[in-house]
Amino acid sequence: MGSMRDPLKRSLFPAAVALLVLLVAAGPMTNAKKGGGMADKKKLTPLQFEVTQQCGTEPAFQNEYWNNHKPGIYVDIVSGEPLFASVDKYDSGTGWPSFTRPLNPSNIVERNDTALGMKRVEVRSKKADSHLGHVFDDGPGPDHLRYCINSASLRFIPAEDLEKEGYARYMTLFAKKAAGAKRTETAAFGGGCFWGVQYIFERIDGVLKAESGYMGGTVKNPTYEQVSSGRTGHAETVRVTFDPDKIPYEKLLSWFWRLHNPTTLNRQGPDVGPQYRSVIFYYSEAQREAAEKSKAEFDKSGVFANKTVTEIVPAGTGVTGTFWPAETYHQDYIDKHPGMTCHILRDR
């Protein structure tokens, strides 16, 4: 399960071989040792059995936990031995659950995997000997590790269920995190050129971070050149991390309507193309309902003669719902180029 951001330029093979190498990097396909000994095939789904006992690989972005952000721990689907925790989970962009470290290293066994002539490190559970995935050295943090794991090998136990499930010893891990953590939520908006949208959202009290990127397309980890072609389906998007105790989502929506013209289809000013469309990506049912209500109210306000064409679509569902960060030079672009103007706020 390699990072979709890993450069292919390292490959010196012909195109067919390069594609094979990419597939190897993308998932724990292996001819390593098959099968742990304690799994009951009747208690596992066909996919769980294939992954844990036959070293299979589940589809990226189409598995249970790749986009799970709830606090809790992940245990072996066969034995229940604790393997990973949500506090060490991060979005690697690969479409599989990724962790910076194991919850209990003694429950993890690492083995060299030379399948298809490529050296990797396979990760298995110690007690059940289940195939979990692989560990790579391209992760964040001081150790730069990325444990890329199949959801089918895991069972998630929410923090609130740890005691009743027999994992009470891990409750303090989440109590400590909650005590010092600030409550945050995520929102995403497309309103034309993301330079101006990011610039405005960054200056709103209660917004902790605004990042330019791409959403809504069919290409994984797209480049600016690909998106600019208008053929990938992506919209220039700004992902906003905010403190809901300081600014509610509904207030962010009001800023969104003010910073662009939501009645022009696939266009903002001189920028033309589907990448400049007006769109709201919602991360929860509550956000969807708030966005639909806000859109209806804005249409009734009469700010524009025409009705809005703004799309309201789900985030976090496969490739199209994933936020892909834009290149570094696009981040804080207007701050880096003083005097430039991209969006102008209306009074309402």
Q: What is the CATH topology assignment of the largest domain? A: Metal Binding Protein, Guanine Nucleotide Exchange Factor, Chain A
- Which CATH class of the largest domain is shown? Mainly Beta
Overall pLDDT score: 86
Question: Over the alpha carbons, how many angstroms does the gyration radius reach?
Answer: 22 Å
Query: Can you summarize the main beta sheet?
Result: 6 strands, antiparallel
What structural category characterises the helix and strand content?
alpha+beta
> What is the string of SSEs from the N terminus onward?
HHEEEEEEEEEHEHEHEHEEEHEEH
Number of DSSP helical runs: 8
Sum up the overall morphology in one term.
Answer: elongated
> In CATH, what is the homologous superfamily of the largest domain?
Peptide methionine sulfoxide reductase
The N- and C-terminal alpha carbons lie at a distance of 47 Å
CATH architecture of the largest domain: Beta Complex
- How many beta-strand runs? 17
Q: In total, how many domains does the architecture comprise? A: 2
